[in-house]
Design goal:
Rossmann fold; Phosphogly_mut1; EC 5.4.2.11; alpha/beta; about 210 residues; seven-stranded mixed sheet; isomerase; phosphoglycerate mutase activity
Length: about 210
């Protein structure tokens, strides 16, 4: 069986400032570095054969810290913009609270939490899904089929798209799913590539079969 580890990057500077980030290349904070170190410690006893990340520095920086903590700095690392965060278009750089005041809280909620409605100049979660999943199927899934353990360090919405795919979630279900920064999620695949979601990597781990 192969394992897939998913980690959202550590807290970024714009996470801290409550700004829409999207494709803007913003690095992680000191807290983000600490979150990445803890993620690396929790993965230290796991074999990791390949790592994938986005073209954005906050994900790459997080991955580098994780691999340093794991002692896996010599494994192949593949970077691709298909794993980038959802683009927020014209909203990128804007404070979320101020944006709600300017455009109305209901409109901003629709942009943030609808599945197929994009903000001005940006992507919907469906758009993000439509670039993440083909990349996963063509580049990452074959590694898992060869029984290689894979680590993906990416972003809240690119990982949300992948989780939707792995767990067969509806648009309504995935929009309710929150992904914490720097906390690894683990999936195990059987020979038929059915996913089993493991609980958080702690001393008390529960299994949840995804059908």
């Amino acid at each position: 069986m192969a394992k897939l580890f998913l980690v959202r990057h550590g807290q970024s500077q714009w996470n801290l400032e409550n700004r829409f980030t999207g494709w803007k290349d913003v690095d992680i904070t000191e807290l983000g570095e600490e979150e990445a170190q803890r993620a690396g410690q929790s993965l230290k006893d796991e074999q990791i054969d390949r790592a994938f990340t986005s073209k954005l520095v906050r994900a790459q920086h997080t991955l580098n810290i994780i691999l340093d903590e794991c002692g896996n700095t010599d494994i192949p690392v593949i970077m691709n913009e298909a794993l980038n965060e959802r683009s927020y278009g014209d909203l990128e750089g804007l404070n979320k609270a101020e944006t709600a005041q300017n455009f109305g809280a209901e409109q901003v909620h629709i942009w943030r939490r609808s599945f197929d409605i994009a903000p001005p100049g940006g992507e919907s979660l469906k758009d993000t899904y439509d670039r993440v999943i083909p990349y996963f199927e063509s580049n990452i899934k074959p590694q898992l089929e060869q029984h290689k353990n894979v680590l993906i360090v990416a972003h809240g919405n690119s990982l949300r798209a992948l989780i939707m795919y792995l767990e067969h979630l509806s648009p309504e279900e995935i929009l309710k799913r929150e992904i914490a920064t720097g906390e690894p999620l683990t999936y195990v695949f059987d020979e038929q590539m059915n996913a089993v979601k493991l609980g958080r990597l702690t001393t008390h781990t529960s299994n949840e079969v995804i059908t």
